Structure formats: C-alpha cells, structure tokens
C-alpha cells in the first residue's frame, strides 16, 4: 500500500473550500490501496495532524469546515535522504508516522496553490500530486497566465492590471486604460480563486469600490472585459508515460438571472447556478475546445491536473482562467467533467496519485 499525505486547509481565504475537498477525498479514496495521513494547515500556518474523518470536513454551507489547531505539529523530513514524517503531539511527545510515498496537496489560493508548498516538497524530496513550482506560480497569477497564453496563441479577454500605488499615482492614465475596456468589466484579485474578491462592474462610478475589494485579497487587481458567451469548463490531465495531454468532455455553468458564478453560487447556494455536464457542443467545437485546453496547459508547463475555463462566443473559445488546483469536492466541475468522460471520482483520485508518484516536472 502507498502512504499518501493529504495536505489541506492553508492560510488563504479559500481555507474552508480546501477542507471541504479533503472531506470528499477522505470519503472516496480507496483504503485497500492507500494509507492516508491527513495534515491540515491552520489559518496561521501551523502543520497539524488531523483526524482521518471525512464527516469532520464535509461541505456544509451553514458551518464550513476548518482546520482546528489541536496542538500537534507535523515535522517534514530534514533532507532528501529520508521520507519519514514525524509529529510532535500536544503533550510534547514526538513519534514517527512512517515513510511517505506521495503528498496530495489540495490547497487553494496563496501559500499552497501558488508554488510555495510545491517548493517546500521539492526541497525535502517528496513526490507530490499536481503542478510544479513554475506552473503553480504562473497559474495562480492571472496577469502572468494571460501573458503566457497570449504568447502561445491562445485567446484571452482584454485586461489591465493595476496596483493601489499605480492607481493613486497615475489615476487619470489608469482610468483611461480601464475605460477602453468598456462596460461591464470584472474586477478580480490577480492571485485568488473561488471567485473570492471578484466584482462585476456595470457603472464607472463603482470601479473604485470594486478595486478596493480585490486589493483586500491581493496587491494587484485585474480589470477585465466582460465577454458575452457561454461559460464552458473542462478538466485536463497529464498524459501517461510521455503521452498526449488528456482533456475531458466539457461542462457548462448556467447562471440564473444576470449574476455571475461567484463564491456563493459555487458553494453555498445550489439554486444560483446549474452545472450541466456534458455540455452540448458540436464535434468540431469539442475538438477545438480540447485542442485549446491542452495548448493552454502546456503553455504554463502544466503537470498533473488543471481546469480550463472558457467563454464560448459561438465562434471562438476565449480562455477566462486556468486553475492548477481546481475545486475538487464531489460536486465540483472538475470531477463532474471527468465522470462524464468515464473516470469516476475514486478513479480520478487514483489517476492523480499515480501521476504524482511518476511525475517529471
């Protein structure tokens, strides 16, 4: 049996979503194949040994799960010569948790999805699931993701990126740049996910307030043209043994009214949006979507997994975002798309672990 460290929680505003993902994985992972060590990172950044209890981390809109600091402290290997994980319990006793085969970091947002934890695991020589340091950092920063995709010939929505200092110092210049995008626009933090800090702006006088919301999450904000079109998403997996990148069937987000797929619609209000999977696309449209998704994944040097989000105008697929650790609860779009493609949630967990063990990033 393989020993898998399930790493979740973290210091970002997406802490609770990461915990809910942990609940899903704990409930579905094949216990005949894997010994699981749940390691939760508190909001303060402490690595703690958590109970192996899926119900404790179940997605509950009325009481979102969190990592509670129980006083334990997980100790990573001190060098690449060892894969032994240890823990100091709350009473001060230090004991071994055994050797680790692979780490499954299901962290969302800064200090987890952005290459920082990936760098830690590289330093101590532990194999891990998902994207490497470069792809994680690129995928986390929406500004640099767009630059990489444009360089690869992938269409993205027009945008400008601005910091509070730039907005204050050269306000007229940045307002002109923002106004050139037209209305409505979306204002979003450069480095956040789950639609945290995102505002749809339909009036110019609301732009400053939207920027303040985005800057509360990150020191840079994107102002991005709103694209009229269907919201189409798909899952991506690395190929096995040097094989071609694999892309799932598409899913579609159908929003009720004139809102957008915000945090509440994703996780708290199941009536705000419908996730339709598989989405209806013609054969040529499906081929083009899958081609572009693979191209985008390879443009950031992706490995393991990603979710690619598009606006489909009817004639063109425009990449909205590329998520290197997508929402992975059982109700999330990434596993839904792969289930529609013939890979169940437990099988998807198996595949990701296999790719992590064998990864060459």
Report on this model:
This protein is α+β, with helices and mostly antiparallel strands. The protein has helices spanning 15-28, 116-124, 133-140, 142-151, 164-169, 171-179, 207-215, 263-268, 283-299, 333-340, 345-357; strands at residues 2-9, 34-41, 47-49, 73-75, 84-88, 94-99, 102-105, 159-162, 185-189, 199-201, 221-225, 230-237, 246-247, 251-255, 273-276, 305-312, 317-323. It has three domains: 2-129, Rossmann fold, CATH 3.40.50; 138-155 and 228-355, ATP-grasp fold, B domain (D-amino Acid Aminotransferase, Chain A, domain 1), CATH 3.30.470; 159-225, Dna Ligase, domain 1 (2-Layer Sandwich). Strands 12, 13, 14, 15, 16 and 17 form a six-stranded antiparallel β-sheet that branches. The protein has a four-stranded mixed β-sheet with strand order 3-2-1-7, sandwiched between helices. It has a four-stranded antiparallel β-sheet with strand order 8-11-9-10. The chain is globular. The mean pLDDT is 93.
Question: Which labels suit this protein?
Answer:
6-stranded antiparallel β-sheet; 3 domains; Rossmann fold; 24% strand; 361 residues; D-amino Acid Aminotransferase, Chain A, domain 1; 4-stranded mixed β-sheet; 30% helix; alpha+beta; Dna Ligase, domain 1; 11 helices
């Amino acid at each position: 049996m393989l020993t898998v460290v399930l790493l979740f929680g973290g210091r970002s505003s997406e802490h609770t979503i990461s915990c809910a993902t942990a609940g899903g994985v704990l409930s579905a992972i094949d216990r005949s194949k894997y010994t699981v060590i749940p390691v939760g990172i508190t909001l303060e950044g402490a690595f703690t040994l958590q109970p192996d209890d899926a119900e404790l981390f179940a997605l509950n809109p009325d009481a979102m799960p969190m990592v509670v600091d129980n006083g334990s402290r997980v100790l990573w290997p001190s060098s690449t010569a060892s894969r032994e994980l240890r823990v100091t319990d709350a009473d001060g006793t230090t004991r071994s948790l055994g050797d680790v085969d692979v780490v499954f970091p299901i962290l969302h947002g800064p200090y987890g999805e952005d290459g920082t934890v990936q760098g830690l695991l590289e330093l101590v020589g532990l194999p891990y699931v998902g994207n490497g340091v470069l792809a994680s950092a690129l995928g986390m920063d929406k500004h640099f993701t767009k630059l990489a995709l444009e360089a690869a010939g992938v269409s993205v929505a027009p945008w400008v990126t601005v910091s509070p200092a730039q907005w204050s110092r050269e306000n007229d210049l940045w307002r002109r740049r923002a106004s050139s995008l037209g209305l409505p626009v979306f204002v979003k933090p450069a480095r956040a996910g789950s639609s945290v800090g995102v505002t749809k702006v339909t009036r110019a006088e609301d732009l400053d307030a939207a920027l303040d919301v985005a800057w509360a999450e990150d020191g840079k904000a994107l102002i991005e043209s709103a694209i009229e079109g269907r919201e189409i998403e798909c899952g991506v997996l690395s190929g096995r043994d040097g094989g071609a990148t694999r892309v799932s069937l598409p899913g579609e987000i159908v929003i009720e009214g004139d809102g957008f797929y915000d945090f509440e619609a994703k996780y708290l209000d199941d009536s705000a949006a419908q996730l339709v999977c598989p989405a209806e696309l013609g054969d040529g449209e499906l081929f083009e979507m899958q081609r572009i998704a693979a191209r985008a994944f390879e443009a950031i040097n992706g490995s393991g997994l990603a979710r690619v989000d598009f606006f489909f105008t009817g004639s063109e697929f425009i990449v909205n975002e590329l998520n290197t650790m997508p929402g992975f609860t059982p109700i999330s779009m990434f596993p839904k798309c792969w289930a529609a493609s013939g890979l169940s949630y437990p099988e998807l967990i198996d595949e990701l672990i296999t790719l992590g063990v064998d990864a060459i990033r």
